[in-house]
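no rush on this but wanted to send it before i forget. what follows is a protein written twice so to speak, once as letters and once as structure tokens for the fold. mainly i need to know what kind of three dimensional shape the backbone takes. thanks a lot i owe you, the record is right below.
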Amino acid sequence: MDDSLWGRLPVEAQAEVDRLVSVGHNVQAIVVMREHTGLPQPSLRDCVDLLSQRFAALRE
């Protein structure tokens, strides 16, 4: 997992990202990631990569 980006998210934001991913709201999950990581803001590519990783982790 991309610990650098996931680790930058507050616990509440991590829970919100997981909730959104689990119901298929991927765009909203990326918005939460970008809003809660602070500066420098993560790239869209990094967010999509993390989204894929969280989707896989939640399927386990």
Notes: Residues 3-59 form one domain. The chain has one domain: 3-59. Residues 3 and 25 are 22 Å apart (CA to CA). The mean pLDDT is 93.
